[in-house]
Design brief:
The protein is mainly beta.
Length: 789
């Protein structure tokens, strides 16, 4: 055999000319096929999808620097070919591994990311070009150098099997809608996916329960990828609501109150006495009587101001009579650095001040002006302060304007105004003027101001560091209303009108998946609506496996320590937070141990759990490398009249405690009928069913019969309280969630306020069966011991 180029003789079996290096086909190859074509039915062997690394075609082989110094050119070429073959085989193995990881990525692009309403058009990312040499799919065809456009990061396959370049129906596997940019190719039935999988196959994960290992795989997953929205896709509305929200967030409309402005003059009348009817009708002074406690049926709303004199935050609770619309009580809470100043104002139906109770505390617990509680009381009639009572350390002193006000319910020493010295009279006169002005300035300013609520939360990277370049868009009714960016600590606040309404957040971050937070509901009287911490995750083709553990929130397992597993529970997963009505992208069931494996790309998802005999629950999760096991506490369904409160949290702090103050005898003070770990039940059956001290929860309280009156529910960070670190951020960062259930199912969910120091979370109250969110947070326990007694 001779070289066809220079005529040099070539030894038998040689493939390259020893003189000029020209490649010579094997004499024994059928049909003239060369060895490197591997007899694959006429298809060129092409691992990696393109030309073999280092191969310049039939005219020569580039010298590999790793084999320099080998004397024979023929040997160099042989070794280079061998290395190329090995590299190609390795590439095939890697490709197969990638294929398995991507088996659960959906190729379907018909997902409506907004549920019942559609967000504005979502821009797709361009699919990466495929290899120049086409690779036939399972049912597809490859046309020479213009094959399918299935690059490593993209796909030009349309929903119905069309692979035209730039098709808007192409998808990025697992990342969202995109347009392919590969060369023309014609996938066959079902279209092709990497490695020859059909679209249907690519949307599935390994199925079958592995109960012996305590886990069950998700089945029927159809991951279409997180929604893709860019800043260029978004235009802020110029509508009235958008303008109003923009104005609220400029700070120009910050509400300021001058509490003691001298706008009103007292009327002195020594013959007047206090009319006790209003106070004793509103407050539940006598638990066994139906003629009092009317305040528990009132409508409660809240507003926030800034004290013009101190610069402190002022929070107001407004109690409106549902029968006649009169405001009969306003509670003022001023936030000082180390304590609260709490003032209860009582007004007649005509708006005249009747009674004022002022006291200091470090957190707000159920109470009113019981005689045993320290503070100052101011009794009015027709704008005359008829009595001033001071209670301190069990001592009660009464200062009365005349004899008529001295004769009723003084409960201690009393002195008539005329008997006071000049200095004491001056103090009485000053107190009368200040409190009268405070009462009317509060009444007129607070009731005359617009109601504002704040949507707030944190934006973090997966490693818990703040992400400040995110764009947070407020969305409602197919309009983008406002945009803000997080502060240096990752926090954001968006002011919105305090009317009942529902919004969404769309978070767009460079290089990261878009996140949508659904169902942000503004409730009248709720100043702050807290959103789960948003973790923006870089766009990635990685898939992580996590375990969901579904456990009974009420019943223990046979070992008496763990909670009972819930098998055969249906698991549905949706993109985004609070997503209850959008497309289900993956589903599965729990095994005999209550476990279910999930395989998802990094991002934020909503998990829905369903099983007969239990109330449906929704849990927000973030998928990242360090997520670990997610424990879900499933509440058995309740009969009519009952209510259940279930607290769940993360690994740290280890011990969060539930505290429920019940209404059955408020005359006993703040500690009466207080359900917690030291007093787990009461005479009427309120019960702390589950007390957890080793992370995650649950802490479960059941109210068997929700009666009229006031309940208040708190969560206490016992770990940091007991260690004397009340300014800890641990509970705020714990991901704590409180779910409230009735016979109607899940009726309320509360997320712990984020980015705040403190150890006591005042979550909500129940007034005559109605849940009223509070969402206050306290970092002082110096004079409070109810959290451990």
């Amino acid at each position: 055999m001779f070289c066809p180029n220079c005529g040099t003789p070539i030894e038998k079996g040689g493939r390259f000319c020893p003189n000029c290096g020209t490649f010579v086909p094997s004499e024994g190859a059928p049909g003239g096929a060369s060895d490197h074509e591997m007899q694959t039915g006429g298809q060129q062997w092409n691992p990696g999808g393109g030309q073999h690394p280092g191969f310049d075609g039939p005219d020569g082989f580039e010298e590999d620097p790793l084999i320099r110094g080998v004397p024979s050119p023929s040997d160099r070429r042989k070794k280079a070919i061998l290395i190329g073959i090995i590299a190609g085989l390795l590439a095939l193995c890697v490709g197969a591994g990638v294929m398995l990881l991507l088996r659960n990525r959906n190729r379907d692009t018909t997902s409506d990311t907004s549920g019942n309403e559609s967000l504005p058009a979502i821009a797709g990312q361009n699919g990466a070009p495929g290899s120049q040499s086409g690779t036939a799919g399972q049912n597809g065809s490859a046309e020479g150098q213009n094959g399918s456009a299935e690059g490593q990061n993209g796909s030009a396959e349309g929903q119905n099997g069309t692979g035209e370049p730039g098709s808007p129906q192409g998808v990025l596997p697992g990342l969202g809608n995109g347009s392919g940019q590969g060369a023309e190719g014609t996938p066959g039935n079902g279209g092709t996916s990497p490695g020859g999988m059909t679209n249907q196959e690519a949307g599935q994960v390994l199925s079958g329960a592995a109960e012996s290992q305590g886990s069950s795989e998700m089945t029927g997953a159809s991951l279409s990828g997180a929604p893709k929205i860019t800043d260029q896709d978004i235009t802020i509305s110029n509508g009235d609501l958008a303008k109003q929200i923009a104005e609220l967030n400029t700070g120009a409309t910050a509400q300021v109150i001058d509490i003691y402005a001298n706008n009103y003059t007292p009327v002195r009348n020594a013959s007047l006495a206090w009319d006790r009817t209003l106070f004793y009708t509103l407050e539940d002074v006598y638990p066994d009587r139906s003629t009092d406690g009317k305040i528990n049926s009132y409508l409660v709303s809240r507003k926030s101001f800034v004290n013009a004199a101190t610069g402190n935050k002022m929070e107001y609770e407004i109690y409106t009579n549902p029968g006649n619309g009169a405001v009969n009580k306003i509670v003022s809470i001023e936030y000082f650095q180390d304590h609260l100043e709490i003032t209860d104002y009582y007004y007649t139906d005509s708006g005249k001040v009747s009674f004022v109770f002022v006291r200091d505390d470090i957190n707000y617990v159920p109470s009113y002006a019981v005689p045993t509680k320290d503070g100052q009381r101011f009794y009015f009639n027709s704008d005359c302060m008829v009595k001033w009572r001071i209670v301190s350390g069990g001592n009660i002193r009464n200062y009365c304007i005349g004899s008529a006000s001295m004769s009723e319910n003084n409960n201690g020493g009393e002195t008539q105004y005329d008997q006071l010295d000049a200095s004491s009279k001056s103090a009485y006169d000053e107190a009368e003027k200040n409190i009268l002005n405070a009462a009317y300035n509060t009444y007129n300013t607070v009731l005359g101001a617009a109601s504002i609520s704040w949507i707030t939360g944190l934006v973090y990277n997966p490693d818990e560091t703040a992400r400040t370049d995110a764009h947070i868009y407020l969305w409602k009714d197919n309009e983008y209303l406002y945009m803000c960016t997080p502060a240096e600590d990752g926090s954001y606040y968006i002011a919105v009108p305090g009317n009942p309404d529902s919004y969404r957040l769309v978070i767009v971050t460079p290089g990261c998946d878009t996140i949508i937070v659904y169902d942000i509901t503004i409730i009248v009287g709720v100043l702050y609506t807290y959103v789960d911490t948003i973790y923006v995750t870089p766009q990635s083709s990685a898939v992580y496996q996590q375990v969901l553990q579904v456990r009974d929130a009420l019943n223990y397992a046979a070992n008496g320590v763990d909670m009972m597993a819930v098998p055969d529970a249906q698991i549905n997963i949706r993109y985004g937070l609070n997503a209850k009505d959008t497309e289900i992208i993956a589903s599965g069931t729990t095994d005999s141990l209550g476990n279910c494996n999930i395989q998802l790309p990094p991002g934020m998802y909503t998990v829905e759990v369903i099983k007969s005999g239990y109330d449906i629950i929704y849990v927000n999760i973030v998928i990242r490398i360090d997520l670990g096991t997610v424990e879900i506490h499933f509440s058995p369904s309740l009969p009519a009249g009952e209510m259940r409160i279930v607290l769940s949290w993360g690994e740290w702090p280890y011990d969060l405690d539930s505290h429920l103050f019940t209404p059955y005898d408020s005359s006993l003070g703040d500690e009466g009928y207080h359900i917690f770990y030291s007093n787990p039940t009461d005479a009427v059956g309120d019960n702390l069913d589950v007390d957890d001290t080793t992370s995650y929860g649950p802490e479960t309280i059941t109210i068997p019969v929700v009666k009229d009156g006031l309940y208040k529910y708190y969560v206490v960070d016992y770990t940091n309280c007991s260690h004397g670190t009340p300014t800890s951020f641990d509970m705020s960062n714990s991901g704590a969630v409180v779910n409230v259930y009735s016979s109607s199912g899940l009726i309320a969910t509360f997320h712990v306020p984020t980015g705040q120091s403190g150890v006591i979370w005042e979550v909500f109250e129940i007034r005559n069966g109605q849940i009223i969110p509070n969402q206050r947070y306290y970092n002082n326990i110096d004079t409070t011991d109810w959290w451990y007694r």
